[in-house]
Amino acid sequence: MSSPRTPEPHAAWTVLRRDGVAIILAHPATGLPAVLHWGADLGPLEASDLDALDRATSRQTTPGTLDAAWRLPIVPEEANGWSGRPGLLATRDGRPLYPRWTSRVEHEDTGSVRVTATDADAGLTLRIQVELGAGGLALLHHELINDGAGDVEVAWLEATLPVPKTADHLTAFSGRWTREKAPLTTAMPRGTTTRESRRGRGGHDAPWVTLASIGAPRNRRGEVWAVHLGWSADVRHRTDRVTEHVTLLGAGELLRPGEVRLASGASYRTPTAYFAWSAAGLDGVADRFHTWMRARSQHPRTPRPLVLNTWEAVYFQHDPARLEQLARRAAAVGIERFVLDDGWFLGRRDDTAGLGDWQVDPTVWPQGLEPLADLVHSLGMQFGLWFEPEMVNLDSELARAHPDWLLANPASVPSPAGLSFRTQYVLDLAHPDAWEHVRAQLSALIGPLGIDFVKWDHNRDLVEPVHDGEPGTHAQTLAAYRLIERLKADHPSLEIESCSSGGARTDLGILARTDRVWASDSNDPVERQDIQRWTELLLPPELVGAHVGPSPAHSSGRATTLSYRMATALQGSAGFEWDILGCSEEETDRIASFAGLYKELRELLHTGTVVHPDVLDPALRVRGVVAPDRGEAVFTVCTVSSCEEALVERLRLDGLDPERRYSLRLRDEIGTARWGWVTPAWVGRTPVVVPGRVLTEVGLQLPTLWPAQALVLHLTAV
């Protein structure tokens, strides 16, 4: 039997602690730091405690000769005995680089640490930034610098954190247009697995977020580890479940061959990867993301306006007189932001022409947009306008004047038959003249018209995106970011919504520059239940556009009641996508009532904690928002099909204060739901007062709601 060996010597440890989460890094005498722990806050730890943690979790001691790393560094590589996916893959002049790092640590503050690692022989510097932000959300990014002669080509540089081997389930996301963010949970796959998106804009089937969990993830209980990449283009999510090590969870930018080549002195900074650990299920993950998002300096602080967007009201049929009439009706029912959608600019009678020519079409708007903008403002509403700044039609003055400004493979312009990709192309914003052209045209409208809001659309994938003969997605994405940043700097009060055929670009990269996302082009409230639920896994509801559309829905043909559509829209940043001039008097009154209810409740809905009580019946979708002081809450109970049993389960209203009593009432301003012939005793005009502990531990007996019906429950502490 061998005697105990001394562990590899460590220069120091770093402990980051915030909001119930801790990250502990060990800094060896050579090489990169290793993550000893990411998860629950372990409390104050002395150096002896950290040494004990290191020893207690170590798999090997010197001079052991296992063909595997003793402990994985934060950027694992083959030289560490790692058989999974390397954290960095790069070449210099076609030859592989195998760095041997020497690192130093800088503690910038109690919540972050910066590691600078160098390898003089390889001619590389690697900077690693690890931060615990508000809510205990972990932020990680790398920067690689070429210090040597000759170009360095980066194949990938990815962020990873370890999760326990007991995390035996993996949840990934996919989807399609009008059905974004569909989760799929499987057993944790063995080996290295990746989920990729190559659409140049995320995509409706983008990885979005990857979750590791002990057992299938639940809404309110169980440990979950999550990663999201704040990047609005091609991404790769990864898991490494190899036999010798803890599991790694991570993500990074997907780079095409030759896309990032670093000349001497140049650097590549990765997008930020966001990691969340929760001991309280999926809602705990959401709470960490929501807390961090709401703590940002640029997060919207003003009440989220009730919107009317004109797309499903008029489509391309723009008639100034009718749109002015629509604006007056909107103001009369309580709308606060009027958005003119596609169809207002030069030659734009359908979706085959005009993109790139951001000038008001005088044949449709002979007096320009000033009269409409002035009217909207005079009625007390904000004025918004639709643009698709990153796109161009070949049938446009811009494309005819500058065919060289297309981000495309020249062999595919025009696209071969059957490959038209919406008859539109991507404008190469990495071309300085193209970027300035778009900036100048948009600014020439935003300033003079007093535009308060831009709906920024992006309606096609980047297919064969060639810039100066090389892959152009990375440069295009950075140029789009710079364009948004410049417009907001030049017009400080401007708000921008990220729309990409609905929810194809809703990541934290685009939301570092925008103020809202359009969750989906589907306004079908049945489909919206799950689209919005999974969008708010990361994004707080005040950032998620949720509109009432007409019935039947234009994206599905499904007919639903107005009350159900309104209850669904109440779950986000609410609005309408509807020709309300055609509404009956009863519908118009209901719209006005909804506007009043939204304005009454939005402070709670857009600042509170979102909860999703676990329910058994697959027909039920239950969602609540509880005030920070737990003095008030709103729950929506919706069905997407018929309930399985005649006696529906009791609903436990999570998040309430068990020591307080709550007055419970139905908010029926938007209409009354329909259910079977048995009505629970608490339903009625007179509010019922119930102890919070009863509502949380025993629950509330639900009626047997019919399919596609919704209740809005309002609880107030008494």
Automatic annotation (TrEMBL):
GO biological process, one term: carbohydrate catabolic process
Enzyme kind, highest EC tier: hydrolase
Catalytically driven reaction(s): Hydrolysis of terminal, non-reducing alpha-D-galactose residues in alpha-D-galactosides, including galactose oligosaccharides, galactomannans and galactolipids
EC number: 3.2.1.22
Superkingdom of origin: Bacteria
Record domain Glycosyl hydrolase family 36 C-terminal: where: 625-715
Entry keyword set: Glycosidase, Hydrolase
Domain Glycosyl hydrolase family 36 N-terminal: 31-263
Start and end residues of each stretch annotated as Disordered: 188-208
Compositionally skewed regions (Basic and acidic residues) per UniProt: 193-204
Gene3D superfamilies for the chain: Aldolase class I, alpha-galactosidase from lactobacil brevis, Golgi alpha-mannosidase II
Keyword Hydrolase part of the UniProt annotation: yes
Protein's UniProt keywords contain Hydrolase: yes
GO MF entry, a single one: alpha-galactosidase activity
Protein name: alpha-galactosidase
Source species of the chain: Micromonospora rosaria
Lineage: Bacteria, Bacillati, Actinomycetota, Actinomycetes, Micromonosporales
